[in-house]
Amino acid sequence: MFSRIRTAVCRGIEGRPVYVETDISRGLPATIIVGLASVTVMEARERIRSAIINSEFEYPRGRITVNLTPAGFRKNGSGLDLPIAIGILTSCGYVDQSKASEYGLIGELSLEGSVLGTDGVLPMLIGLKDCGIRRAVIPAANTIEASLIDGMEIYPVSTLTETVRLINGWGHRRAPADVGSERESLIARAQTRSSAAGDFGDIHGQENAKRALTIAAAGRHGLLMVGSPGCGKTMLASRLPGIMPEISEAERIETAIIYSAAGITDEEGNIPLVRPFRHPHSTIGRAGLVGGGSIPVPGEITLAHNGVLFLDEVCEFGREVIESLRTPIEEKRIVHFRRGESYTFPCRFQLVMASNPCPCGFYGDSEKVCRCSEAQLAGYRKKLSGPMMDRIDMRISMERVEYDDLKGTDKARSEVNSEEMRRAAGTGIEFAREHGRHISNADMSDRDIHMYCSLGRKEDLFMSNAYRSLCMSPRSYNRTLKVARTIADIAESENITEEHLAEALSYRITESVNS
User: Fold this and answer.
1) Do 7 and 88 have their domain in common?
2) Is there a contact between 416 and 243 (Cβ–Cβ < 8 Å)?
3) Most confident region among 159-163, 355-359, 394-398 by mean pLDDT
4) What mean pLDDT is predicted for residues 261-289?
5) DSSP letter (8 states) at residue 78
6) How many domains is the chain built from?
7) Would you say residue 94 lies in a domain?
8) How far apart are CA 183 and CA 504, in angstroms?
9) Residue 168 belongs to a domain
10) Is residue 88 included in any domain, yes or no?
11) In this structure, are 321 and 215 located in the same domain?
């Protein structure tokens, strides 16, 4: 007997609909899975057999052929266990085919017949929804994740037997899960954790750095902080998401899809729904940063999509690792090719880097003497190439925090906190939107720059002199204009003035590790 079940697989971060076709015919007992199935899917045969028997169904003794169609791409993941098992039971007559065709099924099976959670449920549900499926059976462990989907009836299940009863309609009619309340609760918890992050008001001194971070948040500009150990670079960077605009619903779904496909959850087992802050260690390899593998998975740059990628002690990273960021910074995506197939991952992240000025950390320090040789300095600074530095919009040099700033009276302490910085950044963003700019200033195209960053006669002469004296490239010139536009937005100025240009240039000529 023949049956057909709807399901989906996760290919990269994209959910691809799949039909599970099952045919049971006469012949020697065997279970054959065809349709470019991976090793994980091929191993499902033994799990499914035990799950069916332990759920008190009779396993067919004939020749079972399972076809995963379309057969033009490789299927991977344990989420095919449940649809294959239901396909076999449908061919045996335990499940009504007409009713089974109304559902999309996703789930892994244990040997005893329990339905286990699986990675990538969110993109798979979106793939099923896009092809017209409005009812989905998923593992109960993935219910909160599935609550982010609108327009689908979600039926969480815990066992194979429960799935059969649900599809056949045995007993009273079961209502779908109330995913709306789950979604609201999940978003509320995420916002609470985000608001509990550190405040810039806890950091005393470094007022110039706070100003630079406010500009970076308003325009989504890349930033490099250079300073001696312990001056606050990491503390400042970790608080940046707290002054960025609140994540939109579209960005929240994009981020959730990536983390669902990667199988990454927070401390409560839920998918993060706030702006990501990724902080990889300097020992990370190229594949860990940009993604990859035999079956490509998201790297740190994709996990930082819609958020911040922070590279602390950037000059301790491998040079080839740092250089691998050049194309993703420009194109906002990374493409991997495996076995004739392409996998595209988004990576619209805000890059923030921190570095010591030298290997010992005290080059140029007012109190401590640098003990690094010229050769050590040269090798350290070579980690950041000129082309890479040219792609960083802003660079700041951080000074030593004086004792009076650290332990002074309340009046002597910094009064600039996260709320004020968030308000200033929000003012710039809102001003840009009111003037027809709905993308971040860092992402403006050449045409946008010509339209929104035009200069008056005095400003043009000012930039002409700066371009020649600082030996700027066309890329660095455009990035300077973008930063100046952000500074003008924060000041709610329709025109870019010399003052805005001077401040923007100060973030490019600051002494840095490649000087």
Assistant:
1) yes
2) no
3) 159-163
4) 87
5) G
6) 2
7) yes
8) 42
9) yes
10) yes
11) yes
